Amino acid sequence: MMSDLSLLKSRKRADYGYILEYRTRWSDNDMYDHMNNSIYNFLYDSVINTYLMEHCGLHPPSSPQYGMVVHSHNDYFASISFPACAELGLRVNRIGNSSVTYEIALFEKGQEAVRSVGEFVQVFVDRETARPSPKGMDQSLRSGLERILVSRQKSKL
What we know:
One of its GO terms (molecular function) is fatty acyl-CoA hydrolase activity. The protein has helices spanning 4-9, 37-55, 139-146, 152-155; strands spanning 18-23, 65-76, 85-95, 99-108, 114-126.
């Protein structure tokens, strides 16, 4: 049986329902000549919010609900550095009443192997109270997220 890390290392672009391209910047590199760890979280947050705005009707300044990150982690497998172009794959592994668990993979354009795989968990809260709504997540958010939801059996993790 494959370990969880082996499964993540075997991820392909086809495992993700949404891909966003990102051109690395000189300032993304750290003194070790690879992308700084904090940039991965910046990119993961960016791909999630881009998807939410493009496919779930999120308008950050005024939507009645917004997502707060309550958990994140990342597994690094290989480095990437400027001037490479990154491709970020996004999928949803779980949707709860007001929460969503995302999986994000970072690939280098032109390379098959995944460079890192991260997980973000967001809880959608009402703008007025900053608390989860008793009614759960807005239907427009839920519908958009369901488009990239993978079944537990398909996700292999």
